Hints:
Blueprint: E1 4-11, E2 14-19, H1 20-45, E3 52-58, E4 64-67, H2 73-95, H3 97-102, H4 104-109, H5 116-133, H6 138-163, H7 207-224, H8 234-250, E5 258-261, E6 264-267, H9 268-287
Antiparallel strand pairs: 1-2, 3-4, 5-6
Amino acid sequence: xxxxxxxxxLGGDSSITIYSYGFMVAVAILLASWLAGRxxxxxxxxxxxxxxxxxxRTKKDGKSGAVLPSELMGTITVxxxxxxxxxxxxxxxxxxxxxxxxxxxxxxFSTGGLTFYGGLICAGVSIAWYGRRKGIHVPTLxxxxxxxxxxxxxxGRIGCHLAGDGDWGIxxxxxxxxxxxxxxxxxxxxxxxxxxxxxAEPGVYPTSIYEFVACTLxxxxxxxxxxxxxxxxxxxxxxxxxxxxxxxxxxxxRVNNTFDLFGLEVTQAEAIAxxxxxxxxxxxxxxxxxxxxxxxxxxxxxxxxxx
Length: 307
């Protein structure tokens, strides 16, 4: 494993360390920002929402100039990163509240301990609030970012794998391994992992790799369906359902904390994933009607020749 990609000496005993997990998260954020910005521009060209005014671009007559939706992605990315980390940390604390009470400062300020669903929920609410302020129809905004969220999650999981941060599976059963499958895809001991934990042979299921592969395929599906004819928000609801199904399945072979829920022993991720599946399928059912008009306020016709 390569938890530390690069050490930059600053003189003396000081240095800056570039961690593989942080690097891959940065790659995931930039990739998601680029894809979402591209999709937002396309949706505006199709007349799905109106012009976006920018106070910083004042014309000579005193009126605010218009900007492309993709030009908002810088701010949206900052919001997503900040609220994503805050939400991830909050949900991790809730999931490990006993450990938090023993060392609150240590858990709050540690570089690890991030829970994906916490980041997704908090960042999603914040981005929806910002998009509404800018006049972007929130369900349309959600559709635009849905594919990018899926691939960003998968790329982030590569960071988990490289770092060996504990997001791995249960002990691998080698008797079940298909003969043609490479061993590293079935069992991994994560040598030199960031947690400095020694895993017994033959190792654990490398669930981060499985999630990367699954999310890449699901991204392809969402991207292929991004021109869907249904009501705004349908694609995001489909993403929510797929996200929940993928996470619920992978949790069956992942190591995670459990708690008692109505007599069942479940993980926090399993509980949230189940809610996502129900919410996503319900939303899809309600929104599976063909669009008859653009939903945004102040709709403007698409420019001639735009596609």
